[in-house]
Design brief:
The protein has 295 residues and is an alpha+beta fold. It has helices at residues 6-13, 150-173, 190-204, 212-231, 240-246, 257-273, 279-293; strands at residues 24-29, 33-35, 39-47, 55-57, 70-73, 77-79, 82-90, 95-99, 103-105, 111-113, 117-122. Among the domains are: 21-122, Immunoglobulin-like, CATH 2.60.40.10; 190-293. The strands form 3 sheets. Strands 1, 3, 5, 6 and 7 form a 5-stranded antiparallel β-sheet that branches. A 3-stranded mixed β-sheet has the order 2-11-8, with no helix packed on it. β9 and β10 form a beta hairpin. It is globular. The relative contact order is 0.11.
Amino acid sequence: MAKIPMCLLFGLLALPAGLVAQTRASAVPDRERVEAGDTFALRVLVSGVRVAPLRVNFAAWQNFFPADNILARSEWSRSGAQWVQQFTLIALDSATLDLPPLTVNLHLGDTVRTNPLQLRISAPRASSDLSDMDDIRDIRREPAAWYDHWAVFAGSSFVLLLAAWYLYRKRRRAKPAPVAIALAPPPPSARELALEKLQVLEKEKPWQKGRLLEYYSALSLIVRAYLEHRYDIPALESTTGEISAMLPGTDFPEALRPVLDFLLQQADLVKYAETAPSRDFHEQALEKARQVIGG
């Protein structure tokens, strides 16, 4: 085997660090406020590596989200210049969680850490409509036998018989009044969800704390999620150029195309090229996002 000259070896070791792509990771939830008992999506994005990462280590979140609370995870997929993996988690207790960074294991034993997160878990809203309970998913309960609660069944049977006798007597006297059924409010639209997330992002002001990568990643994700749900295009898995090419087939306003392209390009520069825009643009980016969403 030919030996590598020592001068060449020292030359390779002396390469400036700027010539090596810097590996970065970020964790972005699909929303920052979740009802207890509901599921939410967490996207882990890794850039600066050629091959897919090995795994995301959730050991730092063990006290908040044990293994049983991680319901699903996707395979790593390529999105532009970064690798993306999506997880489905469920939160059971209402609290404000300050979540530490997650560790992403790469090949050859390397690791990279994501940004920390703050997640608000609120108590479920009370409603008289029993159909609202359908939103609480993946609660596993051990089946109970009827004889474990025979006293309850006996008491319930007596109450039901008494109620049936009372209703029978009452119907013989007068026709019962119609029962009003409470209607559940319609779910929020894609525009309302996006504007709410922008309001939370504006309140936190991460750009004032030097967290530009987290800020522009969240801003880009909010706009892309709005485009995907409002115009039925795969915006979350597409590059900025691909999104621009798909929009002419939708009813997206043509006058807003330059605003959208410029906003997503600025976010890409921060995420992939580490090029920060001027300071006065950080707040302008929020207004441009609202203009695209229609707020």
